[in-house]
Design brief:
single chain; alpha/beta; three-stranded antiparallel beta sheet; six-stranded mixed beta sheet; Rossmann fold; 18% strand; elongated
Amino acid sequence: MCDSCIKFPAEVFLPTTTFYCPHCWDKGDPRIPNLDAQGTRPGNMQPYQGLFLNGKPLPLLNYSAKSTLRSHWPITDTSNFLIISIRLEGMKEEGDPAVLAAHHISPYYKNPPLRFASFSYNLASPKAAISYDNRIENLAEELLTSNLSPDKVVVFISTHTTPSEGLIHIAPGGEAAETADLVLRRLIPSTLQEVIRKANTSMLFLLACGAINAAPTRDQVHKFVQESGFKYGVGFTVDKFIPAEANTFIQEMVATFCISAHSKRFSCLLVSHYDLGAHTDIIVYFAGDQIF
């Protein structure tokens, strides 16, 4: 009996019943029986059981709990990650969704496994075009010939398109434009496509006005996604697309599919960002035959 703290009349308990108050339990009073075969002593890490019968705790206190979302929290994947930003010359890097996505997931990484590469292009200028080709090829060759080949690749292309045909601008100011098929294969050459095919997860974001996602340009984009090795391609359909409106959606999509290892379905992401629908629809190109 816990007579050091509380006085009880003798007739309250059976002779084989003992009571230990919370204070004695918390300090691990040596008079309290061991709780298991390993000799675990009671203390503040054990659920409080005050009543004992024949040296065993009486099951008067039931502890029940349901599993929470924490029990389903996905294992984070922090394997080698490459983010590439490709912007039409003259488009600002400040506010670039690729930069913001990289900052968003950077806390998951401590060392170089997260790599960010930024390029601007002007394919109408021979000098600028050669410079772009050399830089993108050097990056691809470095990744293919070293142990730095990424497990995850996300490529952002920020550009403009012609409003009716959906041609992609290849020079600032709309001075020149070409079909999506030609431009995408120039911006993402075969060597970089090889890096993409080796990755477990890969995504292409087309940050341009919606004409690029209208027929027949849409079919060219889908064919490129299929042949280049991307698992997903994401575009936006509004005529005057504002990338800043999609920043939080893009950040969560990158984190969900690349860090949390597909812990959410795409439909769940849409529910979380329903307000983006006030600005634009979203189109997703899959590696297979589907367009969503």
